[in-house]
Amino acid sequence: MIENLLFELEMAAPQVILGLVNGAFYALLSLGLAIIFGMLNVINFAHGAQFMMGAFVAWMLLAWAGIPYWGALVLAPLIVGAFGVVIERTMIARLYKLDHLYGLLLTFGLALIIEGVFRNGFGSSGLPYAPPAAFNALNIDIPIMFLPGYRVWVVIASFLVCLATWLVIEKTKIGAYLRAATERPELVQAFGVNVPRMMTLTYGAGVALAAFAGVLAAPIYSVNPAMGANFIITVFAVVVIGGMGSIMGSVVTGFGLGLIEGLARVVYPEASATVVFVIMAIVLLTRPAGLFGRG
Amino acid sequence: MTMNRRTLLGAAAALPALGGLPFRSARAQAANTIRIGVLNDQSGTYRDLSGPGSTQAVELAVKESGITQRGVTVEVVQADHQNRPDVGSTVVRQWIDRDGIDVVVDVPTSSVALAVNTLVREKNKVFLNSGAATSDLTGAQCSPNTVHWTYDTYMLANSTGGAMVRAGGKSWFFITADYAFGHALERDTGNFVKAQGGEVLGAVRTPFPGTTDFSSYLQQAQRSRAQVIGLANAGGDTINSIKQAAEFRITRGGRVKLAGLLVFITDVNSLGLEVAQGLVLSETFYWDLNDKTRAFTQRLGAMPGNIKPSMVQAGCYGSVLHYLKAAGDMGVAAAKASGVEAVNRMKAMPTSDDAFGDGTIRADGRKIHPCYLFEVKAPSESRGAWDYYKLLGTTAGDQAFRPVADGGCALVRS
What's in the keyword line of the UniProt record (chain B) (predicted)? Predict the structure, then answer.
C-alpha cells in the first residue's frame, strides 16, 4: 500500500515540476494580457504572435548579428515592445472608446497577418535555437528524473519577472498612476499626467513581456510561426479563470494550471489539452468574475 | 472613419474563412480541360513538406507530361484544409460540384485523407494521395478511385521499425499523435514488433494539434524501461519530441533509442544536424539519391522557403505525371467521365519518373517502389546545405509494402 503510494508520488513528482515550467509560460503570457486588458480595456489577440516574434527576433539576433542568448533576452523584448508601441499608436489607440469586440477583432487580424508574414519568410517547420551551454550547471540529475538546467532557469526567470511586474504596479508611484488612470482617466489627466502616453507604454510593456516569454521558449520549442497560436488559446482560458485584468490572478492561475495540466498528462493524456477549459467552464459557472476578479 | 473601420473588420472576419475556400469559382465547360486540385496544409505544421511546394511539383508534372502540346488544357488550383476533415470535405465537395475538379492531389493528414477518399469515390473522380500516411487507404478503406503514391504506415513500420528491431530494440513504448495517422502508425509498428518477437510496453496519446511540450510524455516513456521510444507523430510534433528528448538526455548511456517513425527532410532541416545526427529514418525519395533525383530537383527550381523537395512533394509530381500519361492514353473525355476507369488505366500502365524510378500500381491502389533507410549525418560529415542523409539500406518495392492479401481491401477479394 505504502509502496504503491510512494511509486505514485515518484511518478507524479517529475510531472509536477514539468508542469511548473509550462505554468511559467502561461503566467508570463497571461500577465501581459492582464496588464493590457486591465489598463487599456483591449483584449490583445496578437499576444501569441508577439510571443512568436520574440523567439524569431532572438533567432535573427543570433543568426544574423551573432548576438547570443543573453543579449537577446534584453534586446528582443525591447525590439518587439517598440513594435507594439507603433501598433498601439497607429491602430489600437483609435479603439479605446469602442466595445471590446473591436480591439479583439483588430488584434486577431494583426495576429493572422504577422503569422502569415513569418510563415512566408521562414516556412512552417521552424528554426533551431540551441540552449546556452552555461545552463548545464543548473542541471538537476536525481534518480527519479533529469531536469535540464535551462528549464530551472525558465521557472526562476519567469517568477522573478512576474514578481517585479506586480511590485511595479502595486507598490510604486508609476503603478499608482496606472491604476488610477484605469479607474478615472480624465481626473488623472487633470493632475497633469500624460495618460495616452502611459497607455502606449503599458501596451509596449505587455508586448515586451510576451516577447520575453518568446525568447525563453526559443531553446525549448521549435521556433516556428505557429508557436504562439498553440499557446494563446490556453492562455486566454488562464486569464478568464484568474479574473480578467487581475495581475495576481493571472500569475497564480498560470502556474496552477500548468501544474494541473502536467498531472493530467500522467493520469489521462488524451484530456491534457482540454482540462484547462473544463476548469474554465466550472469557474465561469460558479464565479463568473474569475477566481481573483472583482465585481 | 466608420467606413474604414467596417472595411477593416470585414477583412479581419473574412481572413480565417478565406483559407478554406478554393481560389476560383467560375466553372468552365470545355471537355478537354483537366482540372487538378491540390489540397493540403498551407498554414500549419505540414506546410513545408507539402503546401505550396506540392503545387509547384504538380505544375512541373503538367509541363513535362507534354499533354498541353496536344491541345489539352490543364488547370491547377490549390486550397488549405487546415488539417481538419470538415474543412477538407467542404473544399472537395465545392471543387467537384461547382468547379468541375477531376483530380484531387496530395492531402496529407490521414483523418482528412480518409474523409476525402470517401467523397471522391462517391463522386467517381480521382484521388492521388501523396501526403497521408495511413495504410487504411489501401486496406480496409481502399477505393477504386484512389492511388496511394508515396509511403504508408506499414512501410514505415517495416523499414524503420525493422531496422530498430534488428539492432536489438525488442521492447517498445509509443508516443502517438491522437488521431487516425498516429493510431495507424502505432498499430502497424506494434504489429511488426510483435511479429518479430518483440513487445509493446505501452503508449501515450498526445492531443493533436496543439501539443508543444513532450517532456512529460518522454519521461513516461523512459520510465516504462522500453528499449525503443517510437515516435508515432509527424511534422512539428516530431521536431519538438526529438528536440526535447535531446534536452532531457533521454537517450544518454545508449540504453534507450529514439525511433522517429515518420521524419521528413524538412524536419531534419528544422532540427539542425547537431540535434538530429544519428537518427534513422525511412523515405521513398531523397533529392540527392541519384542523378535522376538530382535532375528532378534541379528542374523543380527554387521552392517556397528555399527548401529541397520532400518525398510528399515528389509524390505529387510522380502521381500527376502518371495520371496525365493515362489520361492521354485513354482520351481526356473518357478519363474525365469516370474516375474508376482512369485509375484502372493508371494501374494497367507501368510507372516511370525521375523521382521514384520505375514502378507499378497494385489492384488495391498502392503504388509500389523501393523504400530507403537513411541515417542523418553528423555536422562534420555534411558537405553543404541540405546534405543530410547517408543511405543505410534499400528495401525492394515488393518487400517494402504490406502484402496485397493482408490489407483486407475489398477490391482485391472480388
Answer: Amino-acid transport, Signal, Transport
Is the Cα torsion angle A77, A79, A82, A86 positive or negative in sign?
negative
For the segment A227-244, what is each residue's pLDDT rounded down to a tens digit? 898 788 889 999 999 988
CA-based nearest distance B312→chain A, Å: 15
Torsion of CA A155, A160, A166, A169, to 10 degrees: -140
Amino acid of residue A154: V
Cross-chain residue pair B46–A124, CB shorter than 8 Å? yes
Residue numbers in A near B247 (CB within 8 A): 131, 148, 150-151, 219-220
CATH code for the part of the protein at B154-283+370-400 = 3.40.50.2300
**What CATH number does the domain located at B31-151+291-369 have?**
3.40.50.2300
Shortest CA gap A141–chain B (Å): 10
User: Mean pLDDT in runs of 10 for chain A (295 residues)?
Assistant: 64 81 93 89 93 96 94 96 96 88 93 93 86 85 83 93 93 90 87 91 95 94 87 89 87 92 85 90 91 76
Which residue of B lies nearest to A148 if distances are taken between CA atoms? B248
Distance CA A249, CA A73 (A): 25
* pLDDT tens digits along B5-37: 454 444 444 444 444 444 444 444 467 899 999
Give just the sign of the alpha carbon dihedral A146, A147, A150, A152: negative
B interface test, pick of A101, A110, A114, A124 with most B CB neighbours within 10 Å: A124
Query: What are the chain B neighbours of A262 within 8 Å (beta carbons)?
Result: 216
Task: Check residue B394 and report its DSSP letter.
Answer: E
Q: CA torsion angle for A166, A171, A176, A178 (degrees, to 10)?
A: -20
Block mean pLDDT (10 aa), chain B, length 414: 45 45 46 94 90 96 94 95 95 96 96 96 97 95 97 94 90 94 94 92 89 88 91 91 90 84 94 90 96 96 89 97 96 95 97 96 96 94 94 93 93 75
Domain limits of chain B? Answer: 31-151+291-369, 154-283+370-400
Name which of A109, A230, A262 is nearest B212 (Cβ-Cβ): A230
Residue B335: helix, strand or coil by DSSP? helix
Q: Which three cell numbers stand for residue A107?
A: 488584434
User: Which chain B residue shows the shortest CA-CA distance from A135?
Assistant: B247
Contact state of B16 with A112 under an 8 Å Cβ cutoff: yes
Q: Which residues of B fall within a CB distance of 8 Å from A229?
A: none
Residues of chain B in contact with residue A269, where contact means CB-CB under 8 angstroms, are 204-207, 217
| Cell numbers found for residue A102 | 473591436
Q: What is the pLDDT of residues B311-323, one digit of tens each?
A: 999 999 999 999 9
Q: What percent of chain B has pLDDT above 70?
A: 92
Q: Please give the pLDDT value at position B1.
A: 36
Tally A–B CB contacts below 8 A.
Answer: 131
Q: Under an 8 A CB cutoff, do A124 and B51 touch?
A: yes
